[in-house]
Amino acid sequence: MRKLNKKLFSILSIVMLLLLAACGGGNTTTESNSNTGEDGVLSAKFGVISYLTGAGAAYGEAITNGLKLAQQDINALGEVNIELVIEDSAGKADQALNAAQKIMSDDSITAIIGPTLSTEFFAVAPEVDLNGIPILGTSTTVDGIPEIGDYVFRNAVPESLAIPAAIEKAVERTGATKVAMIYGNDDALTKGGFEVMERTAKEMGLEITTIETYQEGQSDYNAQLTKIKNTNPDLILASALYNEGAVIMDQARKMGIEIPFVGGNGFNSPQAIEIAGDAANGLIVATPYFGESSDPKIVEFNEKYEKEFGKKPDQFAAQAYDALFIYADALKRAGSSDREAFRESLAETKDLEGILGKFSFDEVGDVIMDVTVLEIKDGKFIEFE
Ligand code: 1QQ
């Protein structure tokens, strides 16, 4: 409803502007930040807020690398020219908001990408939305993100789509009936992921043996894991970012807990293997990006990324890469870097072919994606058959 009202409002504003222009109403151009270079190529600046320093910095590194690679590829096509203004949020909501304020005060910036964590995004997006600046989350997976407002979009796989797929496959394959749960109770993603896990477990009639919680940056999980071990579950559902999740798995294996873990989006990172080593074996996640896929688009993306950055991409890099193509496509169709025109055409994104498949926004600015369930085996993410 709110969307409709806003849409009506913006249509009326455009009609008013056209009328004023027709009446010779003076200074009525809407192209405050519309930009066409000497070469005739439409250009736009996008602000990026990313988790680049701190314990989860590998998320932000993958995202900004994905964006930079897409920027090169888009600019090389010569249809539009994109400039990125990148700010570090350090994974902190207050720092993300400072970065957003800096970006919002620059009238030459058309739209924003990020921040990385849902916790940060929930702090930033309502402000950005109020200021009429389009914002797109490439990694923010919690329920309710696009519903923040008309200027808010995401191309990240929703937790409510990925987690049930992972749990269903894990249960189907292991025959599990009893699950223990653990999650971080001070982060939007880990809490949101937990809610989806609990709902799914209940819907599937699984017995929940215990629900344990931890806090950001915790290093000792002995108490929680002892409790889990004593309840003798078949599976552990863990809603964690990689930095805590990998430590939990490492300590669990050291305590002799060998059962599989099912994680949400936060756990789907090569960093889980990097940090936990062999202890990460047995982690099951669902993802829209499978690195070992033989899909030529994925193979080409992997090669380009590895050549540029000397390491393999992950889901976060792939989603960010597609995100900038979504922005470039909206910019082309808008024919202007004006924020309002850009928002209108962004909302109309339809069947855009990305490396993660065909992309459209639904009417709230959310996305439906196909996911593949993966497990870590012998230190590698492989398809979970
Ligand atoms: C969120 C996430 C994180 C794992 C992004 C890095 O999905 O906070 O929504």
UniProtKB/TrEMBL annotation:
UniProt cross-references to InterPro entries, sorted A to Z: BCAA_transport (IPR051010), Leu-bd (IPR028081), Leu_Ile_Val-bd (IPR000709), Peripla_BP_I (IPR028082)
Signal peptide boundaries: 1-21
Record GO biological process: amino acid transport
Superkingdom of this protein's organism: Bacteria
Alphabetical UniProt keywords: Amino-acid transport, Signal, Transport
Pfam annotation, one family: Peripla_BP_6
Domain Leucine-binding protein: 45-379
Family annotation (SUPFAM superfamilies): Periplasmic binding protein-like I
CDD domains found in the cross-reference section: PBP1_ABC_HAAT-like (cd06348)
PANTHER family per UniProt: LEUCINE-SPECIFIC-BINDING PROTEIN (PTHR30483), PERIPLASMIC BINDING PROTEIN OF ABC TRANSPORTER FOR NATURAL AMINO ACIDS (PTHR30483:SF6)
UniProt record similarity statement: Belongs to the leucine-binding protein family.
Official protein name in the record: Branched-chain amino acid transport system substrate-binding protein
Originating species: Ureibacillus acetophenoni
